[in-house]
Structure formats: C-alpha cells, structure tokens
Amino acid sequence: MSDPTSEAASTATDENPSVRRLADWDADRLQALASEHDTPLYVVDLDRVRENCARLRDAFPDADVRYAVKAHTGQAVLETVREAGLDAECASAGELDRVLAAGFPGDRVHYTAVNPPARDLDYAVSAWNEEPGLTITVGAADTLDRLAERGYDGRVCVRVNPGVGAGHHEKVRTGADVKFGVPYDRAAQVVREADERFDVVGIHAHAGSGIDAGQLDSHRELVSRMGELARSLATPDEAGDATGADPVDLEYVDVGGGFGVPYEEDAPPLDLQDVAEATRSALGRVPRADTAADADADGAPTEATLAVEPGRYVVADAGVLLTTVNTTKPTAEETVVGVDAGMTDLLRPAMYDAYHPIRNLSGGDREETPVTVAGPICESADVFGTKRPLAQPERGDLLAIGIAGAYGYEMASQYNSRPRPAEVALEDGDARVVRRRETLDDLTRVER
Ligand SMILES: *Cc1c(COP(=O)(O)O)cnc(C)c1O
Q: Is the pTM of this model over 0.90?
C-alpha cells in the first residue's frame, strides 16, 4: 500500500521528530509559566499533539485512527485532535459527553463499554438517538441484551479477547485478561448472533499498553488472529468449520492502541512505520462480505478498513508537570528532595512503578548528585524517582517531570485533601490556562 520510497514512508522528520524529550523543552519558557501560574502546574503543548496526530496519520494512511481519549480528556486537547482528523474512542458516559461537547460528529465517536453501568448505557443510547452514526463496542453478550432492552439497534462492534497481551506493567495488559472482551473461541458465534439484532460493523481487540519495538511479536500475533477471525466471518464458506453461516460484513477491524512512548531518556522511540507495516502484513486481506464476490472499478474486491486507537502516543510527550522544591534532606544514602507535586498529581510512578524523566530547570551548572524526589502525600509510594542524577537541588528550584501528558492530570485525585493542579496549554506561541487550580473550597463542594 505505502510506497517505501515515498515521502510518507518516513513519518518522523526534523520538524516532526518521533519523540520530544524532556531536554527539548525550553527551560526559560517553563520557568516563566511556573512564575506566573504557580506550581504544581501541568503544561500541555497543543502543537506537539498536532504533530503526533500527523505522524500517526502518515504512518496509517488507509486506516481509521481513533484517539483513546482517556489518556487526556481536556477540551483543548480534544478539539486539537478533532481538527487533526482523528476519531474519538471513549470508555464512559463522561468521555462521550466530553467528545460530543468538543464537536466530534457521531460518526467519529466510538464508545467501548466494559461492564457498563446502567447510567452509562442510558446516556450512550440517548446520545445515539441524536447522533445515529455513533458506534458501541461491546465485550460481553450481556451488554448486547442490555442495549436491545433500551431499544438500541444501531452500530455495534464486538470486542474480542485475543488471548495475547502486551504492556509495560501487568496492570495494563488487558489482551489476555478475562475481564476484557468475548473469548476468542466464542467470538464468531457472538458476532453472528449480534448481527441479527444490530448493525455489526467491526471487531475489536486491545492488548494493553506499552507496545515497544521488543514487543512487536505479540502485536503481530494479536493482529493476525483478528485477521483470521474477520475472514472467517466475511467468507464463512471458505472457513472450514463455519460453512453455511451467513457472511458478516465488517467495515473495520480495530486492533487497539498501546503504542509505546520512550519514557527513559535513552530509550529509542517507536518506529511507527515498522508498527504500521507489521500491522498491515499481519492483518492480511479482509474482504467486505457484501462485495466478496464482486470487485471495485479497478478489479480489486473492497476490503475492511484497519483501525487503531492510540491514547498515550498522542499526548504523552506533549505534557510536562512542573513542581517546586520545598525541602532538601541529606540522609546516609542520598539526598531526599521534597517537592510540591505528589502522587495525587501524577499517579503513574506510584501505581505502575512508571519511570518519568526529571530535570532541575534551576540547576544551571551545579554539579549533578543522585537524589530521591518525593511528594507531600502520607504514602511511601509517593516518590517520583530514586537515585536520579539532578543538578544539586536547592529549596525554591523548579523541577520538570517529563512525558507527563498521558494519564497525568487524567488520574489526578484529591487524596489527602489536596486540590488538583492547574493546566496551561501552549499553542502557536501563546499560553492559556485551560484548567484552573482547584481551591480548598472545591474539596468540600459536593458534601451535604
Ligand atoms: C486505554 C485504551 C486504549 C489506549 O491505550 P494507550 O496505551 O493509551 O494507547 C485503546 N483502546 C482501549 C479499548 C483502551 O482501553
């Protein structure tokens, strides 16, 4: 499909590199933002979000690219992604509400229902009444019954548990987890039954998060299983065990997200072109059932579209978290540096042992020393990094925590009665506050 000699084959360029490292951010600019808006402060660069969308579209020119919005649901980010031409993949009624408010038309909205609360299904069905192009992805036959009870007969995609998982931590490896999707060996039957009551448009699988170059094999395995399933649905007479079944016409095969981002300073960035080629070749041809026997004007049968749904990849390197040093404490092993951000602002290190790069923006040419960077929460997990070589931190210094745009603000909480931080968006050289800092009053707002 893509000509390797064409310009599109090289998705990363000098103007749009594969990753923006923490070291690439303008320290003076970040210092100025922290002075003006105080810390902890999230900074999200919408221009970088746009670049990430562009690289994805270049690497997957014939695919549907859907942004898994749970990585960052800020309105400014959603609007940027919509303008960049990606669809939206939602995991809850709240996310549906946000993407519709950000102007996504229904036919670019996908809702993946995992054990959906009744309230979420009610919302999704009422949204579908307004926007009939919306698609609901289900991971259990129960969910189909619950949709039918609500009068839904619209577009349905069936989530399959492909039995292969990938991911940077066991908590995000969803592909082989029984929680997600219809078991692979029952999937064809569930799809055929669903097709009698709904407009089945696709099959879906998501293996988890953190696919990197070393895990391309399990991605390939997942995609090829999905290709096999799709072909047996589209052309049952050619699939030995399904002979006689009605063909199911699939618009698309969605192979999920999980495109990795290099959190470590020296980790190589994902080669999107490699991932795209591996994906296309592992999927193979999936003929549209209604056209399996005939052909388009050029004599080629119409094929189902490939769909991918990256979340992290779109926003991770577009965000940093700024935090101020308030304590330095020498201990026998190393210096502990206390900062004003904690696990309530950025949960990933505490929850997944995730690594985030840290830089002392005030360090100048001070000597580097290994430090532990810890937050103000009464939990031993509230540590952003240990043995980190930072320019000797002093009270009042500004630290930047990098690659914090995905699952950063999104997982922030008010634990320890800490108001959530503010967020500033950068775009075309301007900066604007897109989420104000919460106040102590915000903490008690819902109490009666
Ligand atoms: C979270 C999620 C994604 C995105 O995962 P990333 O690692 O952020 O790319 C895609 N699809 C589904 C169904 C998800 O739950």
A: yes
